[in-house]
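Lab notes, practical 5.
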Amino acid sequence: MKKVVWFAVLAFAYLGARGQTPPNARIVRLSELTSLMSRPSGNVMVVNFWATWCAPCIQELPLLEELNASAPDVDVFLVSMDLDLDPDPQKVYRFVTRRKLQSQVLLLDEPDPNSWIDRVEPSWSGALPATLVINPHTGKRIFVEGQLKEGKLQEILAQVR
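Output from the prediction step:
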């Protein structure tokens, strides 16, 4: 009997959590993302473009999460590119929950990346991961295509400050 009760508790917990949106994740359109990137915030912004299917993206997430936790003067945004391949956000929500991501996760709902990539960064080929670091006060922007290493991210932050 205890096994049946325990199984029922686990089943309800799984089903209840399955459809929940993490509090730090939301779906956005390009207009909202570009508005966010051009806001006159007090903080430097690190905008990372990634996907759950991209191994280098996943490998650099701990570095970005560490920055988010340790640098109160930096806003970290993780922009998921998953919705262009799979319109169901639950896969990303489960990933965010399972990995315990604390940074702001934005699911970009734009079906054709080729129509907007140049508006984010003209030099971007579309490869992932990609990171844009912006200082809204100085207007300095540095774009990096490819996986970030710890020293490189700190170097970029020093350059835009």
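Observations recorded by the TA: The chain is about 40% helix and 20% strand. The radius of gyration is 17 Å.
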